[in-house]
Amino acid sequence: MALDQSFVGRTYPATEPYEVGREKIREFAEAIGDTNPAYTDPEAARALGHPDVIAPPTFVFAITYRAAGQVVTDPQLGLDFSRVVHGDQQFAYTRPVRAGDRLSATSTIEVIKSLAGNDVLTIRGEVHDQHGEHVVTTHMKLVARAAEEA
Amino acid sequence: MAAQVSYDEVETGTELPARSFPVTRETLVRYAGASGDFNPIHWNERFAKQVGLPDVIAHGMFTMAEAIRVVTDWAGDPAAVVEYGVRFTKPVVVPDDDQGAVIEVSAKVAAKLDDQARTVRVDLVATCAGQKVLGMSRAVVRLA
């Protein structure tokens, strides 16, 4: 069943702040095998002009994905999450995420469309720090494959 | 921001050093823990096959994280990446053996965007077992 177009533009409440820690960034960098010292060594990060270690570019997805959970589980929207695959992902940074950030994410439904029976949903995430300053905007496109004919 | 590559030194067509990224089941377990994405299609073969996949597959976000390393290693400062986007076109299938799979990533400067902001567009190609696993894979990078 096609998703209700009237949900386009709907914004969900900002999430409780996620506190970004040095050790979580280190764990993530190790998991992707990335030894860039800007992720683990505060001195190396400072030499590049950052106040503390920064996170790899895709780190913030964990925060925006959790925020988007409000959308995909909204019973009024009625998305069948068991049929969802991740279609596209985009990030546009004002600055890198760094240790010490307390980040809140706000999700907005930007696009709903139906393509060949598949529901396509694009969710924009706006991430701000504890000072209200913008850090990154994300776009996540989810595709819910059409259910097989009974 | 302290990119170590100068805008003036790159041209459209400049190739970035290509990289290969191995991925095994152990890699996926680590990534699941670090990212908080515990979807069983990324670690449970029985479950993956039940939902119609050939085997366990890598997290799309893992592939996305590996691909951009070609750009961050080149630029020096990861913060030089000001935009990054991909389309997930094919899954990276990871068999339960010691070899796992290998993600091959190449990239080149596709356009010089803005002489003032010193930004370039880098187009990435990521393949696994000869198939493109990312499409429309692009980054905007601010150079020195």
Index terms:
heterodimer, A: 150 residues, alpha+beta, Thiol Ester Dehydrase, Chain A, five-stranded antiparallel sheet, 3 helices, 19% helix, B: 144 residues, six-stranded antiparallel sheet, 4 helices, 6 strands, 36% strand, MaoC family dehydratase (chain B), MaoC-like_dom (chain B), HotDog_dom_sf (chain B)
3D structure, described in words:
The complex is a heterodimer of chains A (150) and B (144). Chain A is an alpha+beta fold and 150 residues long. Chain A has a domain at 9-20 and 55-144: Hotdog Thioesterase (Thiol Ester Dehydrase, Chain A, Roll). Helix content of chain A is 19%, strand content 32%. Chain A has a five-stranded antiparallel sheet. In chain A, strand 3 (102-115) and strand 4 form a beta hairpin. Chain A is elongated and about 55 Å long. The two termini of chain A are 14 Å apart. The relative contact order of chain A is 0.23. Chain B has 144 residues and is α+β, with helices and mostly antiparallel strands. Chain B has one domain: Hotdog Thioesterase (Thiol Ester Dehydrase, Chain A). Chain B starts with 14 loop residues before the first strand and ends with a strand. The radius of gyration of chain B is 17 Å and the shape is elongated. Chain B is built from four helices and six strands, in the order E-H-H-H-H-E-E-E-E-E. Chain B is 22% helix and 36% strand. In chain B, strands 1, 2, 3, 4, 5 and 6 form a six-stranded antiparallel sheet that branches. In chain B, 42% of the residues are buried. The A-B interface holds A 24, 27-28, 30-34, 36, 38-39, 47-50, 54, 56-58, 61-62, 65-66, 85-93, 95-96, 139 and B 1-2, 21, 27, 30-31, 33-37, 60-62, 64-66, 68-69, 72-73, 76-79, 81-88, 136. Chain B: Belongs to the enoyl-CoA hydratase/isomerase family. Chain B: This is MaoC family dehydratase. Chain B: Residues 16-122 form the MaoC-like domain. Chain B: It comes from Streptomyces orinoci (Streptoverticillium orinoci). Chain B: Pfam families: MaoC_dehydratas.
